[in-house]
Every structure is written in structure tokens, then in C-alpha cells.
């Protein structure tokens, strides 16, 4: 790199004496550095005589690349420090569709505020697929439901919310002034979470609202699909409160009486063996108190 700096100085000054002064060295060792550089790359970089110094065509091309190389070398230590601090890089975040109703906006705003040089790639997946992606190193952090193996993953609660009933706007239950109970849903047509593809919500609903006479009209995996079916008059759905942000005009959302007031959780999930600074810096910023 000293030879490159020497070359740039001579190329810009076109005078060995001035270049030597600029580099705070004497002229003979500067001339030797240029001679060694020319011998190494096998071409003449300068045309020189007793009166003037000029760049050859090869020298002009080499000057462009030398400046680029010196810029990279100068920036490299700072880049290394930023990487070690988790301040630059590409962060791959998986997220559930339901988390986009509110939480993901807060997550992205927080990261752009405190880590502006980090590029965030988003991948929408159900929790099961997010865990597979973590295993395959395809994502760095999952925003998902808390159904994880503590031997492999770590997780942190980001937000929790209530369950509500999504009801067709003209349904008689929309006129109730109190929270709905499990008994209110007996014999109603219900749009239910899939026990295979939406296990988290299915298990929660049957645990917290053990309705004795369920009548499933449809079984689906996505919250937005459920609310869309409610809007079409196909039945009632039990969904997280944030689903009210979907903006379906033909749907009303009623509070539910449940043993746990806010049972629906979203967690940040990552692999226990992930030691990368960028991941851990991100996790420092993804705290419930910071996502408001």
C-alpha cells in the first residue's frame, strides 16, 4: 500500500520532489518505490526526463484503480469496526402476516432510527416456516408465535394482545354492550383456525373458549382470510385485536371474556448459537418499551 500511495502522490504532483515533500520523505527512496512498483506490474507508469514527468496511458488507468484501492483500504478499518458493533450489514427478518397489522411497522421504524446503515430484508412466513428458515440460516430473526424448542432457540416477548370476535356488521351479537362469552358463541357459525397450519391460534381458542357446540363453516390458516370471510357473511371468527386494523367495513369487532386478558403473543426468536454482532445489536433494540 505504501507503493500505491507513492504512485498516487507522483501522479498527482507530476514531480518527484514535490511528491517526496508531500509524503515527508526524501526523493531517492520515493524513486525506488516507483521503480519497484513498475517492475512488479511489468509496465511503465511514467514517462520521465530531466525536465518533466508524465503519466503513460497505463499509468492513467492505474491511477484510477489506485485511488479506488486506497479508498477501500482507508475505509476498511472503519467498516470492520462498524461490523463488529453490529451497525452495518443486511438483516433478514421473518414475520407472520398478522404481525404486519401493527408490530412490524414499529419494528422497522425503530431499526431505521437507530441502525440506519443496516439493510432489512423481510420474508413473510408462518411460524413453522420461520423456524425452518432459522435452522437453514435463511433468516436471522423471526417475528413469530412462541412455540419454540428452548434447547435450540431463544425468544423475547415483543407484544401481547387480546382475542376479539370478528362479526358480520348486521349480526345480532354486534348489539351486545358487554364482552362476549363462550356461551354467546354456542351454535354460531364459526370460521376456525386450521389445527394443522394455525396450531398456535387453534390451541389457544379451544383452550380459552371451550364452546360446547362449535359449528365450523370454514377452517383456514390466515387471519386476513378469516376476516374476509366474516365480511362475506360466512360466520364469526376469533382473531387477535390487531385484526381490526384491516379495515373491513362489513365487520365489527367485539371484546371477548377470556381467562387471560392478552393471550396472543408475538416474540422475537433467534438461534441460541448465533453470535453475530448484527443480530445481537438488533435484539438490543427490539424491546417492548422501544416499540411504541
UniProtKB/TrEMBL annotation:
This is LysR family transcriptional regulator. Belongs to the LysR transcriptional regulatory family. The keyword Transferase does not apply. Keywords: DNA-binding, Transcription, Transcription regulation. It comes from Citricoccus alkalitolerans. Gene3D superfamilies: Periplasmic binding protein-like II, Winged helix-like DNA-binding domain superfamily/Winged helix DNA-binding domain. The keyword DNA-binding applies. Residues 1-56 form the HTH lysR-type domain. It holds the Pfam family HTH_1. Signal peptide: none annotated. InterPro entries: LysR_HTH_N, LysR_subst-bd, WH-like_DNA-bd_sf, WH_DNA-bd_sf.
